[in-house]
């Protein structure tokens, strides 16, 4: 029997994709996690616990932390993995984290660096400046 | 879609070996050809290797598909370490289970397109949750929306590929030049 | 054939959606010139947005340093220091400040008074602070009287021994000068913070979105309790948490009532004023803090300003036309 046809897309496919696209839209439109300390703040999370919170905008220069084989550098405007002894080095490749929500992860060493509620950019619940 | 329960014959092993190798090559290729996609965590892949798993599942059944998945995990373990293995496992197993479900029960409603999309989405979801568990950080979920969108896209591609290929494979089943499918029937004779 | 077309269409739609999602994240922003420094005894930070990335932040900082050299009583050679020493000085900026603030002093019945310097030096908040003795306070209060300030052209005179302290308006004024300067350049948008006094204009990118200015939570220093949204203008906050000390179990903060020489007793924790003039927003925030909420209304109306009040119980009230939104607990 010749079944030379390409299988057609069926109803279920369309429904599935439609539902997924809707989820996508919802996720993109929903406001970000709301947390608002003043100023750009970085969190160093090691083994699932917040090891340290660094208010980046109050730094004078760079601050370096070494945990679990990863070297993390916090500077007034960004945070980044400087080096790590993990096999893939993906964490370092992430580059500099600059805006709230930006996250870099070293999975093998279980180290996460994330920026939370930025006091200096607009997006969702964040602000451009803080009056005090 | 025919699925015959079959014992693991030598021929089957050989087939799985080839298919497994194909999956690994595809996996490797996509890291080389498309490194560091923007907006996505590094290490995110198109998920081309899922084509192989879907093909296996469809032609040979759930168990062989799971073998392919296991092979991918093992390979990740050997070459990239425990973390990579766990990630591959989480994503792969979830995707394969979903694929099995859909191919067994949803034939009327879904074509490979839907399976491809679901597979890709589940794969990425599995990996994301695994990453969250490994690092204990909920902040990674921030990537979720980008991964979802990306998965829909890549899943569509792989699914469409199979929509085109599978019917023609079935057709070729009748053709003796197609050893892969034919040899089963030969074994059983 | 039809199916192929449908497929192509579908794919195109998915791709378009992807592009759309991608675009959302890649709004064309202008180049940003960011700078932070310490000036006027406080932290100054700014973000200047322009098409071509020319840097104006250094020029702005320079302006602020120059302003400080003019209006700070702490700078030996400043006109204000000269006035405090000799009872006389000649400077256009200082004269302007005094004439602009005179009506506000009058409206607060003298509670807001730029000659409060004699009293504030006694309290010495900058060096830890201590409560002055009653006698000291009485003596110093004799020297506090804004009506004795006279301006004739650019020349300012005051009564013997009076001490001018422009701390209540300096930061807002710095914002004024900076924003005026920037508006004349190719800068498309700017957000400037001089020790918490904010000045904004323009936009960060082509969307023309307004700016969002958070207000520090007086009950929780690392948090904000709300956000003001505005396209252009100045925001100043006076709070009881900026400079304070505790002595004998009591808490004393730096917003002094010039009629009593003591910290304000209006029951407020923080007042934020939005106005189209920086110096006024700064002066008004202090004045309203001293007056209390109800009594502030006429003053705010007069200057077409709006305000957000927070009282000791944490109640928030708003006066005037202002786009303010509470934010969730942090």
What key attributes describe this structure?
heterotrimer, A: 132 residues, alpha+beta, mini-chromosome maintenance (MCM) complex, domain 2, 4-stranded antiparallel β-sheet, 9 strands, B: 189 residues, Arp2/3 complex 21 kDa subunit ARPC3, 75% helix
Beginning-to-end CA distance, first to last residue of chain A = 79 Å
Arithmetic mean pLDDT of chain C: 89
Biggest beta-sheet profile of chain A: 4 strands, antiparallel
Query: How much helical structure, as a percent, in the residues of chain A?
Result: 10-25%
CATH T-level topology of chain C: T-fold
Total number of strands of chain C: 18
Please tally the β strands of chain A and state the result.
Answer: 9
Adjacency order of strands in the biggest sheet of chain C: 1-2-6-7-10-15-16-17
Note poorly predicted spans of chain A: 32-38, 118-124
Summed up, the domain count of chain C is 1
Backbone CA Rg of chain A: 21 Å
Describe what you observe in this structure.
- The complex is a heterotrimer of chains A (132), B (189) and C (330).
- With 132 residues, chain A is α+β, with helices and mostly antiparallel strands.
- Chain A has a domain at 41-116: mini-chromosome maintenance (MCM) complex, domain 2 (Sandwich).
- Chain A is 17% helix and 33% strand.
- Chain A is built from 2 helices and 9 strands.
- Chain A has helices spanning 11-29, 90-93, and strands at residues 41-46, 49-55, 63-67, 70-74, 79-84, 96-97, 103-106, 111-116, 129-131.
- In chain A, strands 2-1-8-7 form a 4-stranded antiparallel beta sheet. A 4-stranded antiparallel beta sheet of chain A has the order 3-4-5-6.
- In chain A, β3 (63-67) and β4 (70-74) form a beta hairpin.
- Chain B is mostly helical and 189 residues long.
- Chain B has one domain (10-188): Arp2/3 complex 21 kDa subunit ARPC3 (Orthogonal Bundle), CATH 1.10.1760.20.
- Chain B has helices at 10-33, 50-60, 62-80, 82-105, 112-135, 144-173, 179-188.
- The model of chain B is unreliable at 176-189 (pLDDT under 50).
- Chain C is an alpha+beta fold.
- Chain C has a single domain, classed as T-fold (Roll), CATH 3.10.520.
- Chain C has 9 helices and 18 strands.
- Chain C has an 8-stranded antiparallel beta sheet.
- The longest helix of chain C has 24 residues, at 2-25.
- Chain C starts with a helix and ends with a strand.
- At the A-B interface, α1 and β8 of A face α4, α5 and α6 of B.
